[in-house]
TrEMBL record:
Organism expressing this protein natively: Ruminiclostridium herbifermentans
Transmembrane segments: none
Catalysis: reaction(s): O-phospho-L-tyrosyl-[protein] + H2O = L-tyrosyl-[protein] + phosphate
Example GO molecular function: protein tyrosine phosphatase activity
UniProt xrefs under Gene3D superfamilies: Metal-dependent hydrolases
InterPro entries: Caps_polysacc_synth_CpsB/CapC, Pol/histidinol_Pase-like
Descriptive protein name: protein-tyrosine-phosphatase
Keyword annotations from UniProtKB, A to Z: Hydrolase, Protein phosphatase
Top EC class, one word: hydrolase
Similarity section: Belongs to the metallo-dependent hydrolases superfamily. CpsB/CapC family.
Top-level taxon of the source organism: Bacteria
Amino acid sequence: MIDIHSHIIYGVDDGPSNITQSLNMIKEAERLGIGVIVASPHYQESVYDAERVEENYQELLYRASDYNVKINMGYEVFANPVNQSLIKNRRKLSLSKSGIILFEFPYNATPQNCIEMVCKFRLQKIIPVIAHIERNRVFMNKFEYFVAFIKAGCYIQLDCASIVGIYGSKIKEFSKKLLQMKFVDVVASNAHCADDYANWYAQAFKNVSNWIGKEEASVLFHDNAKNIIESGNSDDLAYRNILRWERLV
């Protein structure tokens, strides 16, 4: 399996505080059968230290060489209106330098603001994957807003914690609905510690397999994630490789 959203780099955000905790996350991921993790620390230009992220990432790569897990680099970018810094650094910020960027919207963001930002990303040829939007209660209560949001041109990443009910039964049921309607492109851990992998990841795969079948679960936990990180520097390839937005037209 491939995990494109994991706060595995120590000492840079709300993930592990030291390298031992990061290595424990890798150990647990390996036990679960995860072969690739895209490290995706939070990115907000005025808050997080990019130089420290790179230093700690390199140290983690060196210390993790004994594990059979590949650690790639990416970010979880706080969604703001498109600015020149984001455009300039989009390859660096993207998942495994794929040109595809993982974005986090505020939980209280209005549907219209979300849709407008996705449209602006697309105009700048930024390919957005939206993290854990299933936790936005406005979308949950007004499903037509969610459909309009996807039609704007974004991919959807669900959190394992939502699927297993950590955030409550309503979010779990909304996640199930999105999965059954094929509105989800990728499932990822959003892990911040080893326990997040141990307690949520395998159970999430089991739940998704029960809801939509094991073959489709494998697509969401592996195949689509593989397509993202292997898109390379080709924007055209990145657009082709994942599920089609045209499914909604």
